[in-house]
Amino acid sequence: MKTHFLRTHRSSESLPREGQLAWAIAEVAADPVEVAPEVAEMVINRVIDNAAVAAASLNRAPVVAARSQALAHPVTTGGDGATVFGPDLARRVSPEWAAWANGVAVRELDFHDTFLAAEYSHPGDNIPPIVAVAQHVGATGHDVVRAIATGYEIQVDLVKAISLHEHKIDHVAHLGPSAAAGIGTLLGLPVETIFQAVNQALHTTTATRQSRKGQISTWKAHAPAFAGKMAVEAIDRAMRGQTSPEPIWEGEDGVIAWLLGGPEATYDVPLPEAGEAKRGILDTYTKEHSAEYQAQAWIDLARRLHAEHPALADPAAVESIVLHTSHHTHYVIGSGSGDPQKYDPAASRETLDHSIPYIVAVALQDGGWHHVDSYAPERGARPDTVELWRKITTAEDEEWTRRYHATDPSEKAFGGRLVATLTDGSTIVEEIAVADAHPLGARPFGREQYVQKFRTLAEGVLDDVEIERFLGLAERLPELDAQELRGLTIQRGAAFLEVSPRGLF
């Protein structure tokens, strides 16, 4: 890997394109290096993972609304269009709208892959826009694998180097550029064209973190889909010869100077050397539970404690439970956020999946986690749950913060130490570093687990024939021709699919 040094430049400095981060990203995207076999295998896993979550969310309101919008935009010119999760294969829409609808379906349950470092991300959000464009232009599965490897690589590299949340910018600001780069790889575009698209994608996808603060709305699922849609449109504009703001990161009035660390800030961004394989996807990990990633390990610990220390499920037996954890967990999903909504039984599902006190309370009482039942209003409003929930707080611990940011995979951790004080005066102290499904966890996810996750979430939604049809295509992804790739979706009869209230389209 090489390091790209990033800082603000005054307009009078006239930073050449070859010195700009967007150009360096475009060079990585245009590099014809082949994908390593283990990377291709992980790409398949994540395509299956995305479809699993999409199947479980087909009739959730944000997905219904996004799908209805997409279906109002049939394919026009330039290609054959792309499929949308749910409708049959013959129903095609314009690719940017397929990216939109499928992106919402993938993100709605907060249940697909993650990468956490200086920033946090869901790199699987790169897949919907890449596949949509691939279906539209008649690309092959081999093309898609190369493109997804690029999308993951760029997003992981940006997330390792540049914190967005520190400056209250939403993390999808790293997704617009990575998706644009991935589509550039897919289409074999020249560096200049990809460069312009990366600039435009970043410019149009920076927004504040209010979408993940306080009472969290349904926009949480739409935000990454919007970034994917903007990436598709940025590529289209760039292919037509249109230029974009530059230097977008480094400019005097650019992203670093006014949205991130300020004119004096510097960043070291790791990027592959020319000819170096893109392996970023291998640093990422998926979820076994439908909740914010930093809750994964805590759910696993709580379900173990449910069996080993049943008293922890009884609020009458508990004086307090303190979760000693990283800075990020404490301030984003813990009591350090200062959000009273994280303790509100009437809070939205989106808020509750970002409330570690709620999640630990329910997992301690139920001994597990369910993507629907654990968020049911009646579940959250149970008096004994509310009582226990309000006795759970978080505290930042320097050691867990250090481990959160560690670059050594054996040191990196997203859990913490639970200290429970019982009303009889006794204490229970337990800790967990990583989720059971993490590559270094108790039960790491492999292909078998990804397939089982798909089968479990698709049960009752897709029929057996459709489940096998999709898995048969997904597991042969690198070999698919253009016609087969157009079938890489999940379909369910129109009678099952709900339709949103009428909008403008």
Automatic annotation (TrEMBL):
It comes from Labedella populi. It catalyses: (2S,3S)-2-methylcitrate = 2-methyl-cis-aconitate + H2O. Its EC number is 4.2.1.79. Belongs to the PrpD family. PANTHER family: 2-METHYLCITRATE DEHYDRATASE (PTHR16943:SF8), 2-METHYLCITRATE DEHYDRATASE-RELATED (PTHR16943). The keyword Ribosomal protein does not apply. It comes from the Bacteria. Residues 20-266 form the MmgE/PrpD N-terminal domain. Keywords: Lyase. Monomer. The lineage of its organism: Bacteria, Bacillati, Actinomycetota, Actinomycetes, Micrococcales. It is an enzyme of class 4 (lyase). The keyword rRNA-binding does not apply. Pfam families: MmgE_PrpD_C, MmgE_PrpD_N. This is 2-methylcitrate dehydratase. Residues 289-471 form the MmgE/PrpD C-terminal domain. GO terms for molecular function: 2-methylcitrate dehydratase activity.
